[in-house]
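Quick one: structure tokens for this chain, please?
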Amino acid sequence: MRDGKDVQSFITSETESIRRRVGTARVLCALSGGVDSSVAAALVHHAIGDQLECVFVNHGFMRLNEVDQVRALFGDSLKMRLTVVEAEDRFLQLLDGVSDPEKKRKIIGEEFIRVFEEEAIKLGDLEYLVQGTIAPDVIESGTSQDPMVKTHHNVGGLPEEMNLQLIEPLRDLYKDEVREVGAALGIPRIILQRQPFPGPGLAVRCLGEVTSTKLSILRQADAVFQEELQRSGLANEVWQAFAVLPGIRSTGVTNGARTFAQTIILRAVTSIDAMEAGVAQLPLSFLESVGRRIVAEVPEVNRVAYDITPKPPGTIEWE
């Protein structure tokens, strides 16, 4: 690990720190289904056991079938108590007419907290909130030493006033270190190897105003990309891969007739810690196959492109 500690020493020190701070209190964990929040949940569960209550908020910006996958993976595999909150309409209404990505992130970040505060009361006046915040979230959100790149919902998106006290045991770690901790805690590989997924979800992969129609188009296109990556055996070759709906329409032709439809951008990168990323060298024949499927199966789309920009100068996400 970067600070010179070994993984077991980190787990031991964090476990002791959490126990001292929490005592006998019950704790709510914001579980998103991603690697970071899963490892944070497992670490806190390791420290305080059944005092932990995990809450997954379906904000309506998840990928196709993701809510069911989270229920199966985390309710069954990690054996933790899991509450799923359905809040799609609530979040979508708040983003009505909002196109600026920073505003999106901040609105989603604050509303997450409000939902968790409500659930904390329902579950019995819980005082603590566990988040899977990691070092890149903090750095990119801006510090006294680092300029702001983008507001992460769990850092710069937090409201000034909160009724819950934060516990962020992974705040100084990078993604590769988080996975090391997770492996040491016995988290199944299927969870640890999940691709990173932003807290605001598809809301920051759907450029401009977010609507249910645009989300549906994006979900379908992204599902095709993920299916083809799995089918071809390329899924393990990338750090992160996803579709973006940039809101660009272009002229096309279907069955001899003109179309004027949406464009999908495919993005796939390689990385170690998400601070830098390279372009995944996916075979052109594979990309052509994905493009053909998307255009054939998503009628609102008539053009597919591949993003070949590393980080920097681009970020991994488009917003």
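The mean pLDDT is 92.
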